[in-house]
Design a protein that fits this description.
Blueprint (H helix, E strand, L loop, with lengths): L2 H10 L1 H8 L6 E5 L14 E5 L36 E6 L2 E12 L4 E5 L2 E4 L2 E2 L2 E12 L2 E12 L3 E7 L9 E5 L4 E5 L21 E2 L3 E10 L9 E2 L1
Antiparallel strand pairs: 1-2, 2-14, 3-4, 3-14, 4-12, 5-6, 5-11, 6-7, 8-9, 9-10, 12-13, 14-15
Amino acid sequence: MTLRKSIRDILSCLPVLLGFLTIHSALAAAYIVPSASMEPTLRIGDQIGVIVPSYGLSTANLPFGDALKPSSETNSRLFGHLPHRGDVVVFRAPANLHQTWIKRVIGLPGDTVALMHGRVILNGAELPWKDMGPTREESRKNVWRAAERYEETLPGNIRHNILKMSQDGDLDNIAPFTIPANHLFVMGDNRDNSADSRVSVADGGVGLLSVWNLQGQARAVLWSWRDIGRTALVL
């Protein structure tokens, strides 16, 4: 990482840090990670800073936005624009609009996505993995399981770490499909413990995420009670 990129990342987090001081604002908000679905990137109990207007604004950003979802996805965001692949986003959970969830954007509208033996195939190309060695997954608080850590690379050389416990689980094989307009394909970094776009809304997952649901982009770990060294970690 270059010094210029480090400075740019720190400056980009200033609105988050300022927003954290006031807990919530029009620019930034703080959230607590409730589950293991984004390990190893985010851990249970991490407090994360979110830049609210990263993708424009929709009624999903309002306190009672769960009751204000539009009937049409067209023009559902003010000053809206799409996330980048690899962004960590927070959103109203489609299965329960009262809840805020967090996942990573893998596919954008028009992308073709498939999974085979746990590997993501994006627009016909398998995303590269680099084995980073054995680790542990905290499936719930203070309950640990053996896992393998991989570095996955998205187009544009966007790299992030993921966890895998097996290569042929229930969510590891999905036939190719194309993401429709105004929707995203999102996944948890903990690939075997995440109810994400691989799981339908009817089954308690995210399904293909409507861009209306977006509430902002997670940019930093503001505080980690369980690992002080992760405090101020830029995502």
